[in-house]
Write a structure and sequence with these properties.
Blueprint lengths: L1 H17 L9 H23 L12 H29 L5 H13 L1 H27 L1 H4 L5 H11 L5 H9 L2 H12 L1 H14 L4 H25 L8 H5 L5 H14 L2 H14 L15 H16 L1 H20 L5 H29 L7
Helix pairs in contact: 1-4, 2-5, 2-11, 3-4, 5-11, 9-16, 11-15, 11-17, 15-16, 15-17
């Protein structure tokens, strides 16, 4: 009889954990994020309609990758739960799994809070990125790629009459160094995915979390869409295609030679994007845009976030941002000025986002430290 009552109490506790009525409400900051995504979506649709390409807008380009990512996250949670149970088994006195450990596991994972807070923002994020990809892939419908000669000339003026890639070539112009830089440059994508999902489920510092996402949406929405259209350029790797000039032929010949000998992902990716541009196709990750550099901007955002949490880790990501900046020039993706504009503007957006996040969080009455 005692075991029966213990089992009943366990079931009640599990139900209470799963169906606890007071679900966490969205803060004013989170609601503002949703409003930003809705506004961005409306502006994208208006711009597409005005240019007669509304039928090209796809809100769910990243739907398949979103589903795959959710499955991967679920697998991580399952593995974490198994590890936690094994850890308790090794360190705590023996306890019945379903009577004691199952409720402890649910409480430890904060499943409900994390799910409720993360999933709507997760969906908004993938809709936003789908629209961003649409806008980037259709830049030629909204403007013309006419700024490459201007940015190339600006680079020379800023660097005492010398192209930045020529200044870097004596230091980086060796196949194995180029290959290593390319690996670091391509590692940006898994780093981006990690930071996004980390902050999606993080509740340690609500203010910092909101500051990160406000900055991310502003950087990608304003810099990655508006500025990219107004100052449309393709970068050194597409200079010949867009202008007819062979000015960067020497740099691209070096990169193609390294690709023939050792394989260089940047070159193959540049060729793929050129093919998609010429075929006027929209798919995950496509689009040609140099000014400003989203790689540099996002890498700098990694630095700003981690520096607030841990100075030593921040220094590591500061160094990584420097490598991304150098790599963007050395690998022919960007002019140096693209990166400079990205760093300056992202720093300003970070300050602005901090003010917005602080005011929004204070309105909700949530403490900015760990809850």
């Amino acid at each position: 009889m005692e075991n029966f009552f213990n089992g009943a109490k366990t079931a009640q506790s599990m139900v209470a954990l799963i169906r606890k009525p007071e679900l966490p409400a969205f803060s004013p900051a989170e609601r503002l994020l949703f409003q930003m995504v809705i506004t961005y979506a409306l502006l994208c649709c208006v711009a597409a309609y005005h240019n007669g390409i509304l039928n090209r807008i796809d809100f769910f380009i990243y739907a398949s990758s979103a589903a795959e990512t959710l499955l991967a996250i679920a697998q991580v949670f399952i593995m974490y739960g198994c590890f936690k149970v094994l850890w308790w088994k090794a360190t705590l006195r023996p306890r019945p799994l379903f009577r004691d450990w199952w409720p402890m596991l649910f409480k430890n994972l904060q499943i409900k809070d994390r799910f409720v807070k993360a999933v709507p923002l997760f969906i908004s994020l993938f809709i936003f990125l789908s629209l961003f990809t649409n806008m980037k892939g259709l830049i030629s419908y909204y403007g013309t790629y006419s700024w490459d000669p201007i940015w190339a000339e600006t680079d020379r003026k800023l660097h005492f009459g010398v192209d930045p890639w020529r200044l870097l070539q004596p230091l980086l112009g060796f196949p194995y160094i180029t290959k290593a830089i390319n690996i670091l440059y391509n590692f940006w994508l898994p780093m981006l995915i990690f930071f996004l999902y980390w902050q999606l489920v993080s509740h340690r510092d609500p203010g910092l979390r909101m500051q990160f996402f406000f900055t991310f949406f502003i950087v990608w929405g304003v810099n990655g869409t508006l500025v990219a259209i107004l100052f449309a350029s393709g970068g050194p790797c597409y200079f010949e295609m867009l202008t007819g000039s062979h000015y960067f032929a020497e740099q691209m010949n070096y990169l193609h030679e390294v690709n023939r000998q050792y394989g260089l992902w940047s070159v193959t990716t540049q060729e793929m994007l050129r093919d998609m541009y010429q075929k006027n196709k929209i798919m995950i990750g496509v689009g040609i845009s140099a000014m400003p550099s989203m790689h540099v901007a996002t890498a700098f955002l990694f630095y700003l976030l981690t520096a607030r949490l841990n100075k030593k880790v921040g220094r590591v990501f500061g160094l990584y941002c420097l490598f991304i900046l150098l790599g963007s020039v050395h690998l022919g993706w960007h002019y140096a000025v693209d990166g400079y504009v990205s760093i300056i503007s992202t720093g300003l957006y970070w300050k602005l986002a901090g003010i917005i996040a602080k005011k929004s969080i204070n309105r909700s009455g949530i403490c900015l430290t760990e809850r």
